[in-house]
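[Meeting: bench + compute handoff]

Bench side (C.D.) handed over the final construct sequence. Compute side (W.E.) agreed to return the predicted structure before the next meeting so the bench team could plan truncations. Sequence as handed over:
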Amino acid sequence: MNTLGLSMIVKMGCICSKESIDINGSRYVVKERLGEGGFSCVDLVENASSKKRYALKRITCHSIDDQKVAMQEITYYKKLRHPNIIELVDSTFKGSADIVVQATSEAFLVLPYYKRGTLHDYLTLRSFNKNYLDIKEVLRIFSGVCEALKFLHDFTPDPVAHRDLKTANVCLTENLDPVLMDLGSCAPAKVQICGAQDAQKLQDIAAERSSMTYRAPELFHVESYCVIDQRTDIWSLGCVLYAMLYFKSPYDFVYERGDSVNLAVISGTVHFPEDGPFDEDVHNLVRFMLKVNPSERPFIDKVIAKTTDLKNKLDTVV
C-alpha cells in the first residue's frame, strides 16, 4: 500500500471516530473540548443536519443526589428566561446513577456557542498589554450583568441567587453583550440557617460550587443562626466590576501572591492600583458592593441606580 493510501485511511479513521451524540432525535458531532470543571465538561459540537454549532455541557452523575442537582440546573435554565441569561436549547439524561452497582449517568445540556468566549477570556487577552476597557464600555457590560441578576433576584414566586457569579461565567456575544451562564450553583435566594449542621452544609456547598476569589465573606464562615440572601451575589458582582477595571478579581491578586484569600475577604481588604486610569467614583461603586457585613451591602436595585447615576455623570462630561 502506498503512503498516500495509508494517509487517507488514517484520515478517514479520524473522521469516522468522531464522537456523535443523539439528543432527543438530533445528532451532534463533537468537534473539540472547550473546557473542564470539577463536575462537568463542555464540548463544541455541531448539529449533523443544520451544521450549526453549540456548546454541549456534560455532567457526570455518580448518585441519585447528583442526578437531582443536574435536574435542578436544567429546571433553572428552563424557567429563567432573559436576554442576559443563557438559554437551554435541549437536554437529556443517559444511563442511570446507582451507587450500589457503581453505575453513573450523564446529563447533556445543549447551549448556544459564543465565539468570543467569556468575559474572563476577553479580559485575559486585554491584560497582556494592559489594554484597559473604556469606562463607558465597562459600565455598559456591567449593566447587562446587573439586569441578569435583577431578574434572578426578583424572580417570582421564589427569588434565586446565582452563587457563582464570576467573569468566567459571563459569555460575550459578537456585540460584547453579556450573557450569564452556568446555573448549576443557583439556589433559593434566602436560606434560613438553624444550627451548626445547616451552617456546615451550606459552607461545604459554597466551598464546592462558589469560586473562592469571588465568594462572599458570609459563605466562608457560615454562622449557626443567620439568614443568607441574594446579597452574596452583590459581593461577587463587586469583584466582577473590579475585574473589568483591572482584569482580575481583587482576591485573584491575593491568591497569586500566596496570601490567604479567606483572611483578605473577611477583612474586606481591597487595593486599587495607583497607576490605574479610573477615578474614585468608579472605585466607590466597587466599594459600595464589597461590604463585609451583608446587612450593609446593597440589593441589586441600588447597585443599578448608582451605576445609572455614574453613567449619567460621565455623559455630561465633555
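W.E. noted at the follow-up: The CA atoms of residues 236 and 249 lie 9 Å apart. C.D. will use this when planning the next construct.
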